[in-house]
């Protein structure tokens, strides 16, 4: 958004333009600073989008970094270090009882002016719902964002990498970079992520971590309530227990909504394998033999053993398998000392054909430092648009209220020249 002010009307108009250009976009959350104009504009836009799309109104959240930044400016941290440490924990407490106990302690040990400031601006019910972690539960792992500084970080990447750390004042150049460089780069990166070149995503990493931590549970930690329900004791807090329903595939812990999976459910499935088999997704079994049409040759076998050909386990994407083998082959070719290989021509032809079949968008090279106005292909445009170098010395002083130092030096120089001229005339006359 390009605007000279940040009033509610300007931001609201910008959000309406965004929705008009992308009517299918229906945001679930808005992340903002504690600014009244931004919050009011987001409220209006969320109500309009929910009415048009017949969906739930988006939730407005406050950035935790900006919340803590606003709080630490209201008192001296060096004098109240205990208050500052408690505030950093308080904003992340997701249990209501712990949140209330921390607020009671803050009122006892914090300065009175700071407590009054929190009561006036931050402890209203509608405001607490925007910044407290108590109201940020039941979110998926792809919605776990508590700051809007990611946008600022992306802006830094845009300026330093794609715009090559050069000053830009042309909107057409910015649009050209966004359309022809930024968008293809992230599309290619998404494709690399899907094929496994960029590593595992956050959901897969979280699932592996859950299965690793679930190995610590034993049968003594699990109590069976019914045929499909269990009570699993918490490892971090033994006084707590969570309800696990294997049939509904649900757990009452706060980590379950992240990826609809948690260590308690994993422990139940591991220690009660019959429940894991019952809840596992069913897949059609492969036949052990495959009937073939009758052959003229009696010596030919009538069946083919498929089990000896197919590997056990779920079928993998052939493109991912090929990509992994190409990575191994690339490492071997770098170490190979032979100049000629018999299979290189055929491999080169196959790679050329594959380049034509796949997407042509390439990955951008690593960023490099380019000095300003060097190696530019727009010399003619640069000469026509960029003004020449100023050689005239800038005047010092305010011309509205005085002539400045330059006029005084000029007058002094003129007086000296006149004095020399009169001396010369006087000497000639004598």
From TrEMBL:
Keywords: Metal-binding, Zinc, Zinc-finger. It comes from the Eukaryota. The keyword Lipid metabolism does not apply. Residues 279-294 have a biased composition (Low complexity). InterPro entries: Znf_SWIM. Residues 276-302 are annotated as: Disordered. GO terms for molecular function: zinc ion binding. PANTHER family: PHD-TYPE DOMAIN-CONTAINING PROTEIN, SWIM-TYPE DOMAIN-CONTAINING PROTEIN. This is SWIM-type domain-containing protein. It comes from Roridomyces roridus. The lineage of its organism: Eukaryota, Fungi, Dikarya, Basidiomycota, Agaricomycotina.
């Amino acid at each position: 958004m390009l605007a000279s002010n940040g009033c509610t009307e300007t931001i609201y108009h910008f959000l309406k333009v965004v929705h008009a250009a992308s009517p299918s976009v229906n945001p679930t959350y808005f992340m903002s600073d504690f600014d009244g104009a931004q919050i009011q504009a987001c409220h209006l836009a969320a109500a309009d989008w929910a009415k048009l799309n017949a969906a739930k109104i988006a939730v407005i959240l406050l950035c935790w970094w900006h919340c803590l930044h606003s709080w630490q400016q209201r008192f001296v941290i060096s004098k109240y270090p205990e208050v500052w440490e408690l505030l950093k924990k308080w904003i992340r407490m997701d249990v209501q009882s712990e949140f209330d106990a921390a607020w009671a302690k803050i009122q006892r040990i914090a300065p009175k002016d700071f407590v009054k400031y929190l009561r006036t601006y931050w402890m209203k019910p509608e405001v607490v719902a925007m910044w407290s972690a108590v109201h940020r539960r039941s979110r998926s792992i792809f919605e776990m964002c508590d700051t809007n500084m990611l946008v600022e970080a992306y802006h830094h990447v845009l300026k330093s990498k794609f715009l090559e750390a050069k000053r830009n004042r042309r909107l057409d150049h910015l649009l050209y970079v966004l359309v022809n460089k930024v968008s293809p780069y992230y599309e290619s990166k998404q494709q690399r992520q899907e094929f496994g070149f960029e590593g595992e995503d956050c959901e897969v990493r979280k699932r592996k971590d859950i299965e690793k931590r679930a190995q610590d549970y034993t049968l003594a930690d699990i109590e069976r309530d019914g045929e499909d329900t269990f009570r699993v004791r918490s490892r971090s807090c033994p006084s707590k227990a969570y309800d696990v329903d294997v049939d509904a595939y649900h757990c009452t812990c706060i980590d379950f909504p992240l990826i609809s999976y948690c260590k308690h459910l994993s422990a139940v499935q591991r220690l009660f394998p019959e429940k894991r088999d019952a809840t596992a997704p069913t897949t059609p079994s492969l036949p052990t033999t495959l009937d073939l049409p009758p052959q003229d040759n009696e010596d030919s076998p009538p069946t083919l053993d498929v089990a000896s050909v197919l590997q056990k386990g779920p079928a993998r994407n052939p493109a991912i398998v090929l990509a992994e083998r190409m990575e191994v082959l690339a490492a071997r070719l770098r170490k190979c000392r032979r100049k000629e290989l018999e299979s290189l021509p055929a491999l080169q032809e196959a790679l050329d054909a594959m380049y034509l079949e796949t997407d042509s968008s390439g990955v951008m090279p690593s960023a490099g430092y380019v000095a300003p106005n060097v190696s530019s292909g727009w010399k003619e445009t640069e000469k026509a648009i960029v003004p020449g170098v100023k050689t005239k010395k800038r005047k010092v002083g305010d011309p509205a209220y005085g002539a400045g130092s330059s006029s005084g030096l000029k007058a002094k120089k003129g007086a000296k020249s006149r004095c020399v001229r009169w001396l010369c005339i006087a000497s000639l006359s004598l």
